[in-house]
Amino acid sequence: MTRPYELRRRAERMAETRRRIVEAAVELHTSVGPARTAIAAIAERAGVQRHTVYAHFPDRVSLFRACSAHWRERHPFPDLSHVETIELPEERLRAGLGALYGWYERVEQDLALFLRDADAVPPGLQAEDAQRYAFLVATLARGWPRRAPVRAAIGHSAEFETWRSLCRRHRLSRRAAVDSMVSLAASV
Hints:
The chain is mostly helical. The protein has helices at 4-29, 39-46, 50-56, 60-74, 81-84, 89-116, 123-141, 148-157, 160-169, 174-187. It has 2 domains: 4-73, Tetracycline Repressor, domain 2, CATH 1.10.357; 76-187. The chain starts with a helix and ends with a helix.
């Protein structure tokens, strides 16, 4: 008969192995990208065999889901609850984009790889990301005219690629980029 402490130790070892696998996968996803991350490389980095990776994560979806949760825990999306309380649409957009662009600055390299390798992400997780993005845009667009060009300008302003173009390629400061996007939304 297995003793309770043996079961507990086994569960702890399994949890530790799972954590090492997830951390190894996240390290690879954020260094070479999801599309170039092989199960063999994850196993090697985690110090386990390939079959151990598959025992913990039998499919890509479960591995990606665990990696996404771990990455989001380490790099939480900005808390926009204060933004939701701002009544003036331009000020709400300004505050929301300021927080969002600050987050983009902190996670730029990771997001660039994730975007480059978006096709490697399982469709279900892509749909979840699309829902989060739609909620973000709806929050930023509240109070603005419901015309398609206005919504498109606000949606465009929230895109990682927009921030990257303005702040990296064209070397605008975060504040100048935010001001430009608020002006764009107000002008259409």
